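Here is a tokenized protein:
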Amino acid sequence: MRARLNILSNFTAVTQKGGQFYSKVRYLGLAAAGAMFGTGIYVALVPGKVEESLINRSLTGATISVTIAWVAWVTAVRPQVKLTEMSIIVRNWVTESVIPYQHIARVNVSNGLTFELTDGSKIKGRVVSASIVGQMAGYPSAKLIRNEILPFLRDEHSDGNGSIRQTFTLSPSVPLIILALHGLLYGALRYIFHAS
């Protein structure tokens, strides 16, 4: 049992590329989005027992693809933490927070990744969410990110005039791309291959 915990404590669930941290689960999210696009194509191509029209099958397939692929994108691919010279950018499922370093009082890693701010509020970093495995291992991914942030928090040259900005963003590009691909598929099936 001790050896298993040691392996877990050495594993990190984030990928670091320069000052950006992404969840390794994002690859599962990308695979799920691709699989759902494939499922939508299958629904559009196969007439089934009822012999529904191509437009109905295409709309059903596109709805399935867009819904599940977008949820996979938002929950698994989108979350990230990015360190810049003056602030940290925390991108969660539907929000993006720009936090200047001087507003961060503490980086809590006891239950995932949480930024405790000087005004008493907290911002969770969904790139490392609370989990049983993380709790057993001591959240090594959150500790990795905290250790990268600490030098910025101690920097006495940081600008004291920046303010915290939080924006609501839904990432509409993914559903729009999938809808466009389904539209192209419908057009090809209907007008090139004369499917009905």
